[in-house]
Amino acid sequence: MTITQKENDTMKNEDDVVIEATIPTVDTTPDEDDDGITEDAGSISSKTTATTDKQPLRSVTPTASKIFSLIRTELPLLVLGLILMVVSEAASLTIPLIVALAYDALQTYFIDLEVTMSEINLWMGTAIGVFILSQLAGVARGIILGVLGERLVARLRRQVYASVLKQEIGFFDEHKTGEIVSRLGSDTQLLQSAVSTYAPESLVGFVKVIFAVILMYYINAKLTSVALSGMAVLCLFAIPFGQRLAALSKRYQDALGDAQTRSTEALGNIRTVQSFASEPKELSRYTEKIGNPDENSNNSNDGGNKSKNNNDTEKEDTTYDVGVKKQITQIGLYALVFGGAFTFLYCSLWYGFYLVTIEGSLTLGGLTAFQSYVFIIGAAIGSTVNNAAQLLSAVGASGRVFYLLERQPKIKNHENSNDSDNTGNTNKQAIVPTSPMEGNIVFDNVMFSYPTRPDVLVLNAFSLSLEKNTTTALVGSSGSGKSTVVSLIQRFYDTEAGTITLDGIDITDLDMEWLRSQIGYVQQEPQLFGMTIRENLTYGLSEAAADKITQTEIENACRDANAHDFVSSWPLGYDTLVGERGITLSGGQKQRIAIARALLTNCRILLLDEATSALDAESEHEVQKAIENAMIGRTVVIVAHRLSTIQCADQIVVMDNRKIVDVGTHEELLTGCRRYQDLIKRQSTMMRDVSAGTIQKLLPTDFSIDEE
Ligand SMILES: Nc1ncnc2c1ncn2[C@@H]1O[C@H](COP(=O)(O)OP(=O)(O)OP(=O)(O)O)[C@@H](O)[C@H]1O
């Protein structure tokens, strides 16, 4: 079946409409950096956002004051933990000295056994007492710092998540969700370990070395100088190893973050992945970052996908490649530190025996204590190098976390901002109207391009009035900007020029929470949450309102949305769980729940973005009835392709090529707008399931429908 017009118009292909890439009328250069953050020298310039690709998340330089601000609230616990640490370490370090006194008591063994034994009992009893004290302090320190770490990470995750949630939609267009999630999970975890383990352990190691050196000098200065000069040589070799280890740890973490981003993306879209049989492709994308130990090393970086840009000189890091290097460096470092330390230990012991026997400047007990301290220092240096390397990775991770924590959303209420707004005014307060909203929306000369594509103008001098309590349908070719209009009403993005007013007030002056609370929004693919039907329905209400709402109110909204019958037919009714993202519901059921959810908010403005376009005729009919009920007494904007949805609108806006082509009722446009006529003709292909008679009834008499 086709529809032809008697005047014999040429049919145009709506999909051919392409938006030109450069429109000179507006300066669309992105802000240099309005995140409110000073970024890393090595970070990506915001200018690079002028691409269609998702950008890697940036990082900021972590300063000591920023790190301190994280732990400030935990300072009492931290100080207590550090005091216990010093007590525990100081106590354990004195043990070799005390045991040395017991050894020295042996010298009187042949003279007076009783005196010798009483001295040995005294010193060994004291040593055990001090050891128990040191252990108790150590356990208390471990618990305190462990709890501190958990408190810190829980608070940090909440703060970072809160900061991420308030970012503007453009931020999420620009960045991959997986990367954000990885920062929330792994990077904050690394920071927790830094505070509860790496930093205290590094400090413990440092304190141990200092104490041990002091005690060694106390025992014998000459022997200590010999041993320390050996240690100094060791450190000279160990430092570059340590630096390399830190750099490798950072690269490993980065590659792991990228791998997590890719796997999160694939698992989040698993239906698409499986429907295209793209499991191997996704595995390959993941392998590009994880590496494949079973492939020969020349190929391991491309994960089996040889078409990538990487050439041999510019290999991307994989966790496998970097991990292997990291392990080798780590083992090399340990071998150097421990091997070297023990070599010097044995050499200094040798010299120590000389001092005991020939010079007589050292007792046997002193020598055993000295030996213990060299062991302690060797072990402390080894673990400190490792902990310090992890600490450096954590400092790197903190830069990534700070970026999310500090980033200022580009779309925000006036009251949140100290900086000047577009008009140069400062300290403007966001308006919360006291009288009920009427719902008159006016677009005045709006210019808009998306932040991720600032050089492509999507709306060009767009002006439109939407009267209160009327329905406006937006129609037009794909990509003409219909959904963009809907997004701008919700202030998901700000315009570049021109204004959008609601009841005469510029929406950028309105409190954003208030504005959005007045708007019900139903998308083509409505997003439900993995909760019960009831919880999904009350999702748009405040906690207090959700507690107060009655079952009758919920059922009435569902009746208006044609959802009550199917929900109540389920055994658990409104307590039925819908699965992750509403996976257990059909498309039409999800739509109707989403409409009911919007209605329950008592919204004055209802935005329906292609709410029926994905549905079959039967579901569409049900959803259409729901929409008609929902329209009553509201300002409604419908983005629609289906004739059945648009023909009942008070005004139909025909959009094309970034502009409004015509505005009128269905009848007016059919007679006067070529573009609209073309659109209606195209309905013929989309409405094969509707009889010719039905379509003919919707068309004026000068249209005829041919059966193919
Ligand atoms: N988040 C975004 N970031 C960058 N460009 C975008 C974004 N969303 C849409 N666009 C671009 O803006 C233009 C208008 O898109 P919009 O979704 O408003 O069109 P539409 O008329 O609703 O199309 P359709 O009928 O296919 O849904 C298109 O060129 C599109 O590629």
TrEMBL record:
SMART domains: AAA
GO cellular component terms attached to this protein's record: mitochondrial inner membrane
Keywords of this entry: ATP-binding, Hydrolase, Membrane, Nucleotide-binding, Transmembrane, Transmembrane helix, Transport
Molecular functions per Gene Ontology: ABC-type oligopeptide transporter activity; ATP binding; ATP hydrolysis activity
Pfam family, one: ABC_tran
Membrane topology reported for the UniProt record: Multi-pass membrane protein
Regions that span the bilayer: 75-103, 123-148, 202-219, 225-242, 333-353
Gene3D superfamilies the UniProt entry points to: ABC transporter type 1, transmembrane domain (1.20.1560.10), P-loop containing nucleotide triphosphate hydrolases (3.40.50.300)
Any one GO biological process: oligopeptide export from mitochondrion
Protein name: p-loop containing nucleoside triphosphate hydrolase protein
Natural source organism: Fragilariopsis cylindrus CCMP1102
Source species taxonomy: Eukaryota, Sar, Stramenopiles, Ochrophyta, Bacillariophyta
